[in-house]
């Protein structure tokens, strides 16, 4: 590499490092706001977050950034730069192009509407008043349609939105995999409803003091390999994991004293996200690549731990006795088998985040189909509540009584995040596929769970997923880890086998 | 005001608001680092703090700032702008001039040495090895002398350093007040040493569980009027208060289970700092004026609560019973009078931060005299340990056995903060003077304490001190609140009366 190129690369990396400093400050301020910032400082804090976010946005679309991209994207540069820098330039270029194509004024209007929409949505959900939220939702859709116009699309307009969260994902692929999944799940859900072998679940709702739940989940996080020297666990209302910097990846959770599953499985889920970010290669520090590959890959890690580890019988062979120590009155009279069946109860429900692992994908498909229809101009925003309810009846056999427990339940649309929901189901399919592939290297998977030795599992995930950060596209990661592209069959097999066994269906 | 001026003012205020956003981010990151950030993220966090601090520094010395100052400092501008904007321009100009006069290269070298010096000092203190720290301390002094050269001085070189922390303060004033103070305290300390009526203090060191100490101090903070909706209390190693934004002023404290005084009086002290910042006029939000007037004024507020409120007998008339509820075994056999005398025990000691309120000013005077002598080129840095020990013998009758409990005990010099120490003693004098003045409006002061009604006291401090933020110079605040300039006699009288009574000296 010649001296000029070397010095441009150095400047570019310093510029990106500065962007990462802003990102760190914003992440910490956000975390703080959600975990314990005093009420009276919140408004000012939000302004500060938005001010520093704007600085970050300005840097990503600056002339300086354009100049770096220009100088570092040509053939000669590509040949002389490291794989890491090439990939970084690629990611910066993608972001630059996306952001730069939208006229600044229009983007500003959009951000303002977004900010208001979330507040209005909160109130609308509380009052179960869709009409109140409608004008905002219409505007958010309107702007996103305009953005698609600026960004362009190949086959489906909605593909462009999907690509933001899951690079490379398309309607064509999703229609296919969701179609197969639906075909298998819907009859299974019906069989379960008719089953005479339902688990008893009363004991799940016994009072389990928060402090004891916390002690137990801390032990489980430790078992999973979550590094407490590079993170911490705090309380919040809406749980999340956040990578503030590579040595500081935090988890937040919430507790329901009358349903320990919320904190236990919730923390394990967020723990899966956090372990991902804790194990990204240190070579990617100080770059945008030191992050999850996509929303779907991120979700594959949280769901791997939540479903394939902590809802597995082997996991409780090891941990049920431990759980019992923290709430002896609750579990003393329960057998391990009863416990296992109870925590895997499946029952159609209205609220996505409370759904069990079998019916969960149906909640996602409903949202996917509605989003797709909106952006392909097949339905109107105002018709969403009715269509939502019809689909819930059709897929799950339940109908929301109010919009609060229907179309208004999730925040995503209020934030303008159209195209995000499918990531949840994709993550689930990825996780099942990774599990199947992992079994080839770790045939003793079940036994490891029974022994409480989760280290080889974490190491396999680091080797095949974590360490790459954003160095690879999501489907590249799946391909190299499993030897094939996205294949929904693994999830179908998993769900079928597991639930037929639990409900003793022949 | 004409339209151009109006629009320049608007831009200037937006620029300053942006600076405040950086300041908020840096303050939160610092707080987080000191209260619970995971170990492995600390190095990156420090880099991020220093990167955003540099941005802030760059803004304060930018050409943009110079242009605003130029356009808003002329006579015509001054006449048309609000008092608030005028004062803000003045403060920005002062900062600009100070920072801009130092050649950038030299400042950068200095900051680097500073960063290393703190780490070296930590190790040197641990090993009690002054020689190890000496070259760094010499460099820090060298640079500060050069800076004084750039900044200029009137009477004493050291005045320029004092002015950074306490605008308007001079060697001339300090020599006078410290002289008087010393003349009164030194003989009093000797009399106390000879007194036959010393308090019993054994019970102070009984085990008092941390959780119980915390519950008690939270009650006291509430009594003081600390607003928990605009702040929070956390654990740390070195306690501090920090105004992250005007609605978010946090306190940190530490606990010694074998000496409850550390947390109780420490939290009250930091609470005094925090109450100050919580009550600055909301009109000053988003400007550099939304801050304490000076280090000395800030300290006057913390010491007011610590010494004049919480070491007062009336305060314990109300709170001793409450304290007793949290540690009955410890205090059941103790009378209020025994308790009051014990917590006000005075005894010469080696460590400043552990000193009682009578001997504390002597610790400050020693540092003041040594700093003054260094910057007036009367002594050399290498001779500090010996001179330190001699002065401790002379003023307090004790001699450090090691430099760790002598010249190496405080971090200030390692941070290059020369001229800072006198603020502690100034704050004390201000507090005594404010107390005397408060008595004119609130003659029932003692009774309020006995009733646990601290509201009128807090309101008086807000009315006379807090609300002004940096709108006034420290001595202006003292003048308007007390009707006279700095007068050390109030502190002398307070200490003399109080300690002669406690030790029953005739």
Features:
mainly alpha, Neurolysin, domain 3, homodimer, three-stranded mixed beta sheet, 506 residues
Shape of chain A: globular
CATH A-level architecture of the largest domain in chain A: Orthogonal Bundle
Assess the beta-strand content of chain A as a share of residues: under 5%
Element-level helix/strand string of chain A: HHHHHHHHHHEEEHHHHHHHHHHHH
Radius of gyration of chain A: 23 Å
Total number of beta strands of chain A: 3
| Sheet with most strands: strand arrangement of chain A | 1-3-2
First and last CA, distance of chain A? 66 Å
Query: Stretches of chain A where pLDDT falls below 50 for ≥5 residues?
Result: none
Greatest interface and its participating residue counts: A-B, 38 and 38 residues
């Amino acid at each position: 590499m010649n001296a000029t190129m070397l010095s441009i690369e150095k400047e570019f990396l310093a510029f990106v490092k500065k962007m990462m400093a802003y990102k760190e400050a914003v992440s910490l301020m956000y975390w703080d706001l959600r975990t314990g910032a005093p009420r009276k400082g919140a408004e000012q804090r939000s302004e500060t977050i938005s001010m520093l976010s704007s600085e970050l946005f300005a840097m990503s679309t600056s002339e300086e950034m354009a100049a770096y991209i220009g100088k570092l994207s040509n053939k000669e540069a590509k040949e002389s730069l490291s794989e890491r820098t090439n990939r970084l330039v690629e990611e910066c270029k993608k972001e630059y192009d996306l952001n730069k194509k939208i006229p600044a004024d229009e983007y500003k209007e959009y951000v303002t509407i977004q900010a208001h929409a979330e507040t209005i949505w909160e109130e609308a959900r509380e009052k179960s008043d869709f009409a109140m939220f409608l004008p905002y939702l219409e505007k958010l859709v309107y702007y996103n349609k305009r953005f698609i116009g600026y960004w362009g699309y190949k086959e489906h307009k909605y593909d462009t939105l999907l690509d933001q969260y899951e690079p490379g994902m398309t309607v064509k692929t999703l229609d296919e995999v969701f179609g197969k999944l639906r075909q298998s799940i819907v009859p299974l859900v019906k069989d379960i409803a008719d089953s005479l072998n339902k688990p008893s679940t009363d004991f799940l709702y016994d009072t389990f003091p928060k402090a004891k739940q916390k002690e137990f989940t801390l032990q489980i996080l430790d078992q999973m390999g979550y590094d407490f020297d590079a993170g911490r666990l705090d309380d919040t209302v809406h749980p999340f994991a956040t990578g503030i910097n590579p040595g500081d990846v935090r988890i937040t959770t919430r507790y329901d004293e009358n349903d320990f599953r919320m904190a236990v499985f919730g923390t394990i889920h967020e723990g899966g996200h956090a372990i991902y970010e804790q194990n990204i290669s240190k070579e990617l520090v100080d770059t945008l690549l030191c992050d999850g590959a996509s929303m779907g890959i991120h979700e594959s890690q949280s769901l791997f731990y939540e479903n394939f580890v902590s809802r597995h019988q082997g996991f409780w062979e090891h941990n049920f006795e431990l759980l019992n120590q923290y709430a002896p009155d609750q579990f003393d009279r329960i057998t391990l088998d009863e416990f296992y069946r109870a925590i895997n109860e499946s029952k159609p429900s209205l609220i996505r985040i409370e759904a069990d692992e079998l019916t969960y994908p149906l909640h996602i498909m409903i949202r996917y189909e509605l989003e797709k229809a909106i952006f392909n101009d097949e339905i109107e925003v105002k018709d969403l509540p009715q269509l939502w309810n019809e689909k819930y009846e059709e897929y799950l056999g339940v109908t929301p009584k109010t919009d609060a427990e229907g179309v208004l339940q999730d925040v995503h649309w209020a934030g303008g995040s159209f195209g995000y929901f499918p990531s949840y189901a994709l993550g689930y399919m990825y996780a099942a596929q990774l599990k199947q592939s992992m079994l080839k290297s770790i045939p003793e998977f079940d036994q490891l769970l029974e022994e409480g030795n989760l280290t080889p599992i974490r190491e396999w995930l680091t080797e095949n997923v974590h360490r790459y950060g954003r160095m690879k596209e999501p489907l590249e990661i799946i391909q190299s880890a499993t030897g094939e592209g996205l294949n929904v069959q693994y999830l179908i097999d998993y769900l079928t086998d597991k639930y037929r066994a639990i409900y003793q269906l022949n």
